[in-house]
Give the backbone structure.
Amino acid sequence: MKAEIEAMPWWDGTRVLRAYCRAERTFPWNWHYHPEIELTLITCGSGTRLVGDHSRDYKPGDLVLLGPNLPHTWFSRTTGRTAAANEAIVVQFLESAFPRTLLELPEFESVRTLLLRSAMGVRFSSKTADRLEKQLRALTKAGGMDAWLKLAGILHELSQAGAETLVEPSYRNERAFKMGSRLGKIIEHIESRSDEEFSLGDAARFANLTPSSFARFFRKTTGKTFVGFRNACRIGKACQRLVESDQSILEIALASGFGNLANFNRQFRKSIGMTPRDYRKLRNPN
């Protein structure tokens, strides 16, 4: 499941942040990433939130901070009856909004730590979300220095709150290599052929290494085994097919590279935390 990079139409060189309310009948599947840091609060509606290799249900009070280039999507469980059946407050800001010289000051130490943690996605408690909702709504109406000061205050409060890290460190390592190195070419090659009969030996030949050397190299640099990474690619493609197609689960299992339905169900539950059938029902309950 390859994430698409999203260009921010608001970025015109004259501001470093924007905050707005997103209100729609449904939040569609939109697996994407962008260089901006993003803070999202769900205020109405429910569905599934995917961040990197992490998947969980969401409901009002879901407050998440995402670092640069971290793939993500929120997609609704049902289509609402009104234009605002699903609502989120979204804040996006450039890393340059808080330059290194500022973050190195003692007063910004906790904010610096929070922004570093955001690289793996951070979810805050519903109690924290309730406390900050009014401030986030006020931020959507602010501009200029006032908006920056409000954002700095919100980040400071978040830095003092308890939070859950979403994705595994190995996932971030994998993304970093994919976005520009020798290993990135290997990873892209594996992803492009993950739904085929593509073995460790095939990957080793592409990398001009022996199978044993490649296995050690891949595990050391990505934190995952070749089979584990290949299966994650297959599960990602299966998720997209479950959401976007009417294929049967067996057809999707075979098309995604799994040899039989039992193995597909087992690997899917291990990775996503639910069966393929339950995952599909979240997006298409009827």
About this structure: The chain has a mean pLDDT of 85.
